[in-house]
Structures are given as C-alpha cells and as structure tokens.
C-alpha cells in the first residue's frame, strides 16, 4: 500500500542532504536561550513549540499525507487505531478488534461517549461514514484497497469485510489512516476549511496563521487526556533548516525536525537527540525483468551495480552519516534485517566489472534515467559509478511532481523511499504492490520470490518473521533493488521533552512527544 | 496634470492586462495538469477527474481565462486549489508581512542612502567615500542569504536583541512587530543603501560642478542652501533606484522570508509554484504588477515635483 509520505520523505532527506553538503547551517552555538529553549530546564514545560518542516497538506484525513501531517491531525482527530512505540497497533476509538478465522472479517468494538467538536456523536454509523470516506480518498484510499465493505453491526460495533487477507491494514490505520472526522463535516465538504474531529486539542483558528503557525489548546475532558501532557501546542511548518535551527537555538522552538549536521551543536546545547530509520536511498530497478533494458533483467548486472556503489561513502558525503549503510530495506532496528548480509555487496569495482563481463556487458550499456533537482545531491556519485562501469546514463531533467509521475516509466531511477515500521507493510509496500516507486513488482516472474511471498502471506504471525528473513535474503541476492543506505530522521528537543521517533512517520504524532 | 495621470493610468492597465494574461497562459502551459501535484500520485483517475471538474480545469482554456478575468476585474481572484480558501484572504494575510519588511527596508535605504551619499558627495576621496566604494562592491557580492544568517547569529542568537525567526502582527504588539521586521529589513536594505548612496554621491558630484552651483556659491549662499539645491537636482537618479529597489525587494524578499521564517508572499509564491496552485500565483502576479504601476506612478509624481521639466515629457 502506498503512503504519500514518500514524497515528503524524499524532500526531507534531500533537503537535509543538500543542506549538509552546502554547509549552510552556519548558526553559532549560543547559550542565550539555546540550552533551555523556552524553559527546558527546571520548570515543567507546558507549551510544546514544534518545528515540523512541512505544512499540513489538508485537514481532511482522506486528503492528508501521512508524512508530516501526523502532528497536526493528531491534535484535532482521534484515530480508530493507534500505534505504540514499536509501531504495533493499539486501541484508540476502536477499543478492541478481532479477525475472523479466515482473516477476511475484522470486527471492531468502538469507544462510547465520544463527541465530535460540532456536537455529533461518534458511533458505528460515524465510523462507517469515515471509513467509506477514507477508502474513497485520493491519498488515504490505498490503505483500504482490500476492504470490500464496512457496515455497522450495532451502535458501537463495525465490521470490515476484506476481499483479501491484509496483515498491514491495522498498521496503516494506526499510522494515520483512521482519523475520525464528523460525518456532517465530511458530508458538507467542510473539512477543506478546517478540522472537525474529537481529538485531544481544540484548534485555535484565531491565534493561528495558515502555513505559518497552528495553535492548539488542550481539552479538559478528552478520553485520552493523560497521553497528551502539554496544555498548549504550537506547530510551525518551517521548511528552511537554518531558520528552524536558529529558532531552536533562540528558544522559539523547543522541539524540531532536525538536520543531523547540527548534532554536535545540539549536544553542546544539551538537547535530546532522537533518530530512527525513515527512508531508504539507492537505485530502484523498475525494469528488473529486462523488458525495456535487457541488461537489467540479468541478476549479475544488477549485482554488479550493487558492488560498484560505495554506499558508506555516499552516506558520509551526502547523507551526513545520518543512517546506516546497508543493502536491505527492512529497518535496521527490526527483526527481519540481517546484519551479516550487509557485506554481501561490499564495494568492489573489479568484481562489478567482472560480473558485467560475465553477463555479456563488458562494455556496459546505455540507459535513460530521470533527474530532478532534489536528487542532484546523489547525481555525481551515480555518474561516477555508472561511468566507471561503462554504463552510459542519459539523464532526463524534470521537476519533482513530474519525477514521481514519470520515474515509473524509466528502467531504473534514483530513489529516496519512505520505509515502514511494520514488516508486513514493508512487504506489501515495497515488494508486492504497484506504486509509483515500485511500478513493476514482477513477483510472478521470479518463482522463488513468489513462493516465499505466498508462504508469508498465508503464515501465522509467529512464522512470518522467519519467512520474511528468507525472503529478504533472496531479494538481496537477486539485487531486487540497490539499496545504499537507510537514512535516519532526527529530532531535537530541549531537556524536559522526549521524542519517540516511529519508522513510517516522517514526524511523530503528538502521542510520541512526551515530557521527560 | 490630468493628462499625465490619465496616460499613466492607461499604460498601467495595459501593463496589468498583458502581464496577467501572459502569466495565465504560461502558468497553464508550464503546469499542465495540476491534479497530481495537488492530490499526490496515488490518486486514481476518477479522483483526478473529480478535482479537475471541481477547480474547473476541465473547461476550455479560453473559458477559464474569461472566467478568471471577469472575476479578477472585480477584485476576486478565486479560491486556492490547495486549501479552497479565497485567494484574497491568503493575500490579505501575507502581503502585510512582505510590505512591512520591504517598506521598512526602503525607508532605511532612503534615510541612510541619502545621509551617506551626501556626506560622500560633499567630501569625495575622503575615508567615508572610500568606505562607500568598498562597501558597495562587498555588499553587492555577498548573497542575501549569507547576510541574513550573519545578522541572525550576531544580533539574535549572539546578543539576544531580536527573535531569530518569526513575525509579530502589529495588532498584537507594535514593539514586537518592529523587533520582528528589523533584522529582515536590514538584510534587505544593506545592498540598497549603498546603491542609493552611490547614485546620490555621483549625481551630487556632477551637479556640484555645474556653473549655476558655482554662481550660487559666488553670490554668498550658505553651504546648507547650496547643498539643498544640489541635492534636489541630484536626487532623480537615486529616487529611480529607490523605486526600482522597492519593486525588486517585493519580489526578491523570498530568501529573507525563508531565513527569518516570515509568512510573506515570497513563501506563498514558492509553495504555490511547487503545488501548481495557479489562482494564487495569478493573484500574486496581479498584486505585484499593481505595486509596480503604483510605485512608478508615484515616482513620476515625485520626479515631476523635484524637476518640473519631467512633467512636460
């Protein structure tokens, strides 16, 4: 299932990389407010002032992006399902749930006594209206691809009928695809103007300035009040990393989406630093069956490319060493990741050339690849490596929206793709389902992969991890992608605020920002 | 005078129409289908079609243009394709921010440009004059982004005199407003100050050597009265530069707005371009052109007052 945070991941990683390269975060460490950042020491912090990087995409959960919209939407909406620190689905407005034996029916019990801000009651009818709205949504719909129908069984029970078993549905609902809005607001299309939810905070529209700052006041009697410690929350969509860091230093922010290039200064200021893998960076082989460029259909050619790139060097030079050099895309802090495989494609240009020769491409081959300004940080490394291999790349320049639109039509392209915190979601998102960044899954063309995928999808939860490990090994061996590294997202917070990053969320929702 | 104002008004309207029309068709040609940018790539064809219908881009381009133009002449620039709020509301919120720093920067440029320009014109070759020469080269060479960062580091983070980022509405606090626009305005003004000063200094020197100035001195007029005469005749070039600067700063404030995180029209322009939000782009274009026309008109009036010969042209 796609998550439209991918573009945001790309922008965030690329901007961080470009900023690091340019060395333009020239703020001088200072003690004037920098250490405390708005009262970080001593007194309990009541005002959370967070620099979020991107503006809210839409107040309509069906049109919102998971990427950086989480903190905004989590202030004003309650989800049906939430996630814990390990990205495991936990109850929220859905107080409990149960799958049928065939995993094709999901029954959810709903919390009672919850009202939306417009006075409407949250009940099964409202939940059904929301899920239908989310399923039809341009951005949210992909999370519900396998949901055939949803019905209210009684006032506080709903039933989702699935057309196919979907082990990542609850994860995606928790990630940001089950925010419940007032059915009346959905019906009247009022969500485009502002949120109407039942969340822990009230949006103070008068004190807010769209695209600049969003002010929220905590509700006195929210059912989950204890999870949200800050009485006042202000979110600032500051895209310029220098401005954001300056605001943090000046005490105007006490928590921010950070550029790891500033880690030394953050340590000096005694801030908390939290990081987590967020995106994989490398080359996506869209044409791994060789339909467009025959060479890419050869396993040895893809392996040669993997051997040729100096992943650790690129992570250091472009990625500011904020991440882990690896050839896998299941998160490095997860159960499927196998550290012992990271040396499989240890940089070896001689071996890469030998493999190309064995595959019958000693002189290389020609290929067209898309290029967008956001990827230019990685272009020199790609040019040099492909050049040494004799692979002649013709770069086709395009703007970023066009890149997402056109990249799938090219045989391979540079990729910065958001990762999932759920192993089955990684399987569906990155392997089996067609996305703009995985346009031709082609699982059927690789019998061993197909067999393993079938087994994983039918296995019990207990067996899935082992099978996914086998699949991971097979995919690395096939050089399914050429992953260079997993890039981390980094967050700074002053003393008194702790951030728990979650792989899958570019910026954590408010429940992951706590006192501490 | 009536003929002068009428001519300027007509040329302004023609300019406005030409630029707005050009922007409309160029924006549509460049952006093509805005729905992927607005909805994301996971949107289905049906969802994209629905949005196309909602924002009206499924109609012939000329119909869209007439629809936009007929509303624009009444001051209605339509609704944002991203937020579906009126473009006018966005502009009303953003424009005061940019105008605050641009007007303040222009005032700083005028005041300090005149003081420095006259001082250098009175003493060509002096230390101050040589500093101006050096500063004009250096300040033009320095990127605005860098100047802004240095100002933040020294005066906000180092000395703590100002906030590092953000804008305070004067309705909330006049003191806070002045504090929030001072550093951005200085960052914008530094280059303009030396340019105005340089123009004024050169004009001053040229006029100072005219026969009528020597005659004034020979007749025993005080130094101050002579300087006023010289300044009045040397000022047109500097005034023109100042007006050009104002217009340039209006469009060029984006870098400073980014560094100081000011929610002005620069940021709005950047975001609207990225999202393919054509109604907002068109609203911004029209407003900017209106400012160009008004500023040029005011400049002509001031130049006519300073030098009556201009009015006859």
Automatic annotation (TrEMBL), chain A:
Extract the InterPro entries matched here: Peptide/Ni-bd, SBP_5, SBP_5_dom
Q: Name one GO molecular function term.
A: peptide transmembrane transporter activity
Q: Does the keyword Transmembrane helix apply?
A: no
**Boundaries of each Solute-binding protein family domain copy?**
88-436
> Keyword set for this entry?
Signal
Q: Which residues form the signal peptide?
A: 1-22
Gene3D superfamilies per the record? Answer: Dipeptide-binding Protein, Domain 3, Periplasmic binding protein-like II
**For this UniProt entry, what's an example GO CC term?**
ATP-binding cassette (ABC) transporter complex
Look up the record and give one Gene Ontology term from the biological process aspect. peptide transport
Domain of life per record: Bacteria
Write down the PANTHER family for this protein, in alphabetical order. Answer: PERIPLASMIC BINDING COMPONENT OF ABC TRANSPORTER (PTHR30290)
The protein depicted here goes by the name: Peptide/nickel transport system substrate-binding protein
Automatic annotation (TrEMBL), chain B:
Segments crossing the lipid bilayer: 97-122, 134-162, 174-197, 237-261, 281-306
Identify its membrane topology class.
Multi-pass membrane protein
Q: Where in the cell is it found?
A: Cell membrane
Q: Which GO terms describe its biological process?
A: transmembrane transport
**Mind telling me which InterPro entries this protein's record contains?**
BPD_transp_1_N, MetI-like, MetI-like_sf
Which intervals of the chain form a coiled coil?
A: none
Q: Does the keyword Transmembrane helix apply?
A: yes
GO cellular component term, pick one: plasma membrane
The UniProt keywords, alphabetically, are:
Cell membrane, Membrane, Transmembrane, Transmembrane helix, Transport
Which residue intervals define the domain ABC transmembrane type-1 in the entry? 95-299
- According to the lineage, what is the superkingdom? Bacteria
Give the family, as the similarity comment puts it.
Answer: Belongs to the binding-protein-dependent transport system permease family.
Q: What is this protein called?
A: Peptide/nickel transport system permease protein
Q: What is the species listed in this Swiss-Prot or TrEMBL entry? A: Actinokineospora auranticolor
């Amino acid at each position: 299932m796609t998550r439209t945070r991918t573009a945001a991941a790309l922008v965030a990683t690329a901007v961080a990389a470009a900023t690091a390269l340019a060395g333009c975060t020239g703020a001088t460490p200072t003690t004037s407010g920098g250490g405390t950042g708005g009262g970080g020491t001593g007194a309990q912090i009541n005002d959370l002032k967070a620099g979020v990087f991107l503006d809210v995409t839409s107040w309509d959960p069906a049109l919102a992006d998971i990427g950086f919209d989480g903190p905004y939407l989590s202030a004003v909406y309650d989800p049906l399902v939430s996630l814990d620190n390990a990205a495991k689905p936990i109850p929220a407005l859905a107080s409990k749930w149960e799958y049928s034996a065939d995993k094709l029916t999901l029954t959810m019990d709903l919390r009672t006594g919850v009202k939306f801000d417009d006075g409407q009651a949250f009940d099964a009818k409202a939940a059904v209206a929301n899920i239908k709205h989310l399923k039809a949504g341009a951005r949210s719909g992909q999370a519900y691809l396998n949901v055939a129908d949803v019905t209210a069984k009684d006032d506080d029970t709903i039933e989702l009928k699935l057309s196919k078993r979907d082990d990542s549905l609850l994860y995606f609902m928790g990630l940001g695809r089950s925010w419940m809005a007032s059915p009346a607001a959905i019906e009247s299309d009022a969500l485009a103007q502002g949120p109407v939810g039942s969340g822990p905070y009230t949006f103070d529209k008068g004190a807010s300035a769209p695209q600049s700052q969003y002010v929220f006041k905590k509700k006195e009697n929210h059912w989950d009040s204890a999870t949200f410690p800050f009485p006042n929350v202000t979110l600032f969509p500051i895209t310029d990393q220098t401005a954001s860091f300056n605001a943090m230093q000046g005490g105007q922010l006490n928590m921010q989406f950070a550029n790891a290039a500033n880690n030394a200064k953050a340590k000096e200021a005694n801030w908390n630093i939290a990081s987590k893998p967020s995106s994989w960076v490398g080359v996506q082989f869209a044409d791994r069956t060789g339909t467009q460029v025959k060479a890419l259909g050869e396993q040895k050619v893809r392996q040669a490319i993997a051997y040729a790139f100096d992943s650790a060097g690129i992570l250091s030079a472009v990625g500011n060493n904020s991440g882990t050099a690896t050839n896998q895309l299941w998160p490095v802090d997860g159960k499927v990741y196998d550290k012992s495989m990271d040396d499989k494609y240890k940089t070896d240009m001689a071996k890469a050339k030998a493999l190309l020769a064995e595959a019958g491409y000693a002189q290389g081959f020609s290929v067209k690849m898309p290029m967008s300004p956001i990827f230019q940080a990685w272009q020199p490394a790609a040019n040099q490596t492909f050049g040494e291999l004799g692979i002649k790349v013709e770069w086709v320049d395009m703007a970023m929206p066009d890149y997402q639109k056109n990249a799938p039509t090219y045989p391979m392209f540079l990729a910065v793709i958001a990762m999932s915190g759920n192993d089955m979601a990684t399987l569906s998102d990155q392997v089996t389902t067609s996305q703009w960044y995985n346009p031709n899954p082609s699982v059927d063309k690789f019998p061993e992969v197909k067999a393993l995928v079938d087994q994983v999808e039918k296995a019990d939860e207990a067996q899935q991890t082992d099978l996914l490990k086998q699949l991971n090994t097979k995919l690395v061996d096939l050089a399914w992608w050429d992953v260079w590294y997993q890039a981390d997202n980094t967050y700074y917070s002053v003393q008194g605020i702790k951030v728990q990053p979650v792989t899958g969320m570019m910026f954590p929702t408010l429940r992951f920002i706590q006192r501490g | 005078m009536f003929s002068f104002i009428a001519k300027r008004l007509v040329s302004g309207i023609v300019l406005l129409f030409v630029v707005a029309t050009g922007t409309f068709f160029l924006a549509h040609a460049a952006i093509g289908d805005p729905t992927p940018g607005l909805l994301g790539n996971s949107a289905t064809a049906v969802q994209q079609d629905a949005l196309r219908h909602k924002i009206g881009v499924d109609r012939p381009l000329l119909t869209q243009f007439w629809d936009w133009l007929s509303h624009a002449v009444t001051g209605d620039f339509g609704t944002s394709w991203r937020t579906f709020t009126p473009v006018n509301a966005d502009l009303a919120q953003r424009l005061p921010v940019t105008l605050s720093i641009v007007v303040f920067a222009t005032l700083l440029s005028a005041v300090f440009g005149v003081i420095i320009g006259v001082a250098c014109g009175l003493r060509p070759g002096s230390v101050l004059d040589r500093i101006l020469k050096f500063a004009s080269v250096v300040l033009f060479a320095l990127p605005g982004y860098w100047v802004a960062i240095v100002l933040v580091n020294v005066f906000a983070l180092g000395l703590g005199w100002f906030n590092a980022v953000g804008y305070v509405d004067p309705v909330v606090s006049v003191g806070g407003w002045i504090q929030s626009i001072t550093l951005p305005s200085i960052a914008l003004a530094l280059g303009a100050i030396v340019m105005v000063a340089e123009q004024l200094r050169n004009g001053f020197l040229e006029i100072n050597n005219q026969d009528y100035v020597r005659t004034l001195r020979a007749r025993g007029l005080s130094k101050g009265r002579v300087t006023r005469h010289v300044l009045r005749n040397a000022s047109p070039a500097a005034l023109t530069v100042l007006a050009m600067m104002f217009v340039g700063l209006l469009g060029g404030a984006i870098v400073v707005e980014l560094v100081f995180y000011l929610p002005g029209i620069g940021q709005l322009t950047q975001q609207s371009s990225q999202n393919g939000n054509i109604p907002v782009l068109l609203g911004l274009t029209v407003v900017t052109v209106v400012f160009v026309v008004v500023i040029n008109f005011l400049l002509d009036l001031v130049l006519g007052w300073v030098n009556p010969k201009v009015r006859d042209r």
